[in-house]
Amino acid sequence: MDGGLRELLCFGVGCFLPAAVGAYADLKSGVIPDKATLPVILAGLVYGLCTGHLWWGLVGFLAALALFGGAALAGGVGGGDLKLALGLGLWLGPFGFLWAVAVAGLSAFLYGAARKARKKELRLWAWRFATGAPVAGSEAVPFGPFLCLGALASFLLSPGTLHS
């Protein structure tokens, strides 16, 4: 099996599949369960150990902790989002993780804007977004699906993401 196919298989089974389960749970219940996030973290550690790129994954882990740890402390993301981000950082490294977050943030923003525009509430939502006002539960956008989408985009569009 060539290296690219092996990476795709490892990423698909070890990272994307459990992340997608978590994303689906986030859409349905607003919670990403540990049974979806912990396999991403553990498989990322094993993958890093087996490939000799654990240090790069740990740098990605720290990048995720810096970004999402602060957001979790401020109440901007939940614990499931934080744990999913930590696992994605292990898999993607710091640069791949930052690309994933950029894709996730943009796609979540566009989804939220489209949802509010359909309800004719875009002006109020944009004002709250621009001023950093707290978001009520009914206005919250589940971020797990967008993190999952961003991770997939980062993996597929960045050659050597898993160990660059």
Automatic annotation (TrEMBL):
Residues 20-112 form the Prepilin type IV endopeptidase peptidase domain. One of its GO terms (molecular function) is aspartic-type endopeptidase activity. The chain crosses the membrane at residues 38-56, 61-79, 91-114. GO terms for biological process: signal peptide processing. GO terms for cellular component: plasma membrane. It comes from the Bacteria. Keywords: Membrane, Transmembrane, Transmembrane helix. Pfam families: Peptidase_A24 (PF01478). Belongs to the peptidase A24 family. This is Peptidase A24A prepilin type IV.
